[in-house]
Amino acid sequence: MIELRHDWTREEVRRIHDLPLFELLDRARAVHRSVFADNEVQLCTLLSVKTGGCPEDCAYCPQSAHYETQVQREPTLDVAEVVAAARRARQAGATRFCMGAAWREVKEGAAFDDVIDMVREVKALGLETCVTLGMLSVEQARRLKEAGLDAYNHNLDTSPEFYRSIISTRTFDQRLATLGAVREAGISVCTGGIIGMGESIDDRCGLLVKLASLTPHPESVPINALVRVEGTPLAALPPIDPLELVRMIATARVLMPRARVRLSAGRTELPREAQLLCLFAGANSIFYGDRLLTTDNPEPDQDSDLLQSAGLVALAPAS
Ligand code: SAM
Ligand code: DTB
Ligand code: SF4
User: Fold this and answer.
1) Quick one: pLDDT band at residue 319, thresholds 50, 70, 90?
2) pLDDT tens, 260-317?
3) pTM: predicted TM-score of the whole model, two decimal places
4) Which domains does the chain have, with CATH numbers?
């Protein structure tokens, strides 16, 4: 029996995070193998259904209207285009389709009605559905649930203290409130964060404490390495050491045994051995497809090779 705890302290988490690497890997692997089939990786495909022009000032984000980046503001995609992309993703082997909108929050109206239709139609293809639309109310979450939404992504991003130096236009508590609305509507919670934004190791542990304090634990925890985008305030930061990502993933795995931990943004800069080490350490999902929302992801062929080279298999659709 694995114990699920929600009361980890930052010190305890730091001790786990800082274990000798092989000891940390052993602990994470033991937890991972007690919950999941060892060689299965879920493939998720992302699509930006509304790109750019976002009023929030998230310092990492190329879609914020506060920064001059290559990303152009675009209208919401047609439902038919989104469904066609979802069909292609399913054909390529993805079992989860995640639609993102560069919104501060969900507003009632035609655009939200369209997203509701997207969810309904993508769900009808037999894919798991996930959306990330910014803040939302319980009522809006209920409408999404009714349409067939499986999961809502809304990241805590970093520790409550460091959060303030990354985003000024909304608070950490507002993020928690949205996650509460998602949970209340019976939608599964996808929430994680980003490393490489200049935060300390304690900040990373602080984020993990907050994620693990959610009761129940989030079903899905994306761990992103910052994609450093020209024009954003974080563009000139140094890249992370890949082993930092390995440690972050392994610690998340120990704290949240049943969560699907997702090796998310930042893989184009990670050597394949480092990616495999992340999957060894407890990640069991990747984004599959050559684009994330607005930035590059490895080519599908490369990813197929990556999995094959290690004898990993893509998670089959739930029957
Ligand atoms: N606007 C919505 C929101 O922020 O909740 C949804 C879309 S937003 C792009 C989803 C998540 O992508 C962010 O919370 C952040 O964690 C991640 N993200 C955005 N830009 C990133 C970057 N440059 N590198 C790594 N992760 C990033
Ligand atoms: C998450 O944690 N990572 C994904 C997904 N949730 C929505 C988004 C990554 C975005 C990377 C930057 C971009 O492509 O715009
Ligand atoms: Fe907007 Fe989301 Fe980007 Fe923040 S992360 S600027 S809320 S699109």
Assistant:
1) low
2) 999 999 999 999 999 999 999 999 999 999 999 999 999 999 999 999 999 999 998 8
3) 0.97
4) 10-310 (3.20.20.70)
Task: Name the β-bridge partners of 157.
Answer: 193
Cβ-contact 131, 100 below 8 angstroms = yes
Residues annotated catalytic, as ranges: 54, 58, 61, 98, 130, 190, 262
> How do residues 209-250 score in pLDDT, each as one tens digit?
999 999 999 999 999 999 999 999 999 999 999 999 999 999
Question: Comparing C-alpha atoms, which of 252, 223, 143 is closest to residue 187?
Answer: 143
* Beta strand pairing call for 96-101 and 128-132: parallel
Quick check: helix, strand or coil at residue 211? helix
43 with 279: CB under 8 angstroms? no
Q: Tell me the sheet residues that pair with 48.
A: 100
Output the six-digit token pair for 224: 């992103």
Q: Helices (H), strands (E): how many in the chain?
A: 11, 10
Query: Could you tell me the two tokens for 207?
Result: 């984020």
* C-beta 265 within 6 A of ligand 1: yes
Q: Which of 292, 295, 297 to mutate to test the pocket of ligand 2 (most atoms within 8 A of CB)?
A: 292
Give helix 138-147 / helix 172-184 axis angle, nearest 10°: 40
Phi and psi torsions of 284, nearest 5°: -140, 40
Structure tokens at 252: 């998340």
pLDDT > 70 in the chain, percent: 100
Tabulate helix, strand, coil % of the chain (nearest 5).
Answer: 40, 15, 45
Q: Are 167 and 157 in contact (CB under 8 A)?
A: yes
